[in-house]
Amino acid sequence: MVHATLVDDGELLEVHERWAENVVCALARMGGQVVGIVASQPAKLAGAMNIASSEKAARFVQVCDAFNIALITLVDVPGFLPGVEQEHSGIIRHGAKLLYAYCNATVPRIQVILRKAYGGAYIVMDSQSIGADVSLAWPTNEIAVMGAEAAANVIFRREIERSENPDQTRRDRLREYEDELMHPYYAAERGLVDEVIDPAETRSRLIGTLQMLGTKQSTLDHRKHGNQPQ
């Protein structure tokens, strides 16, 4: 998911690349500045977040913040990985570690939504609601609680059940849902992202945003220590 054309000289150093491969954590340079990149990897588990990837990303975010390295988060996440094993092992508790790490970070934070951004996993991937300085999105962005088909089946369930032609009604309501709520600029209209950008301009926009945030000064309220989820 971290395309070589985004970073200087196409070079990056991936951290723990063989562990929790559904998220990529890497160090690179953009415009000469060192950055930490957290990116969904849809080639593994469709990019869904699980316990291992939450732990991996949270630790990486904390390391970047400790060494004053700006964070760039590339999002293409369909949600948290479902399953009894994940639930019994505490996926919510472990996912909260990534949420905590981002909220605790004072370095420049930029989010880019590439495609899917569903549910709680979107929130913990440095969304505006947890303090991202700038949130950009490609025209292919899909910010939602769930996929359009699943959402339409829930919202219009009773109408579909009462219909004489349920399949046609389902298709009509799905099309209506996509046209009204899943179009590329819906996120910008609702203030969920700052701007929808041309994918070809991603590198230049990131470098410009990093320069803009270069003078960011942010400190946390004084306290003895935080209370990180365990």
UniProtKB/TrEMBL annotation:
InterPro entries: AccD/PCCB, AcCoA_carboxyl_beta, ClpP/crotonase-like_dom_sf, COA_CT_C. Keywords: Transferase. PANTHER family: PROPIONYL-COA CARBOXYLASE BETA CHAIN, PROPIONYL-COA CARBOXYLASE BETA CHAIN, MITOCHONDRIAL. GO terms for molecular function: transferase activity. This is Carboxyl transferase domain-containing protein. It comes from Jatrophihabitans lederbergiae. Residues 1-225 form the CoA carboxyltransferase C-terminal domain.
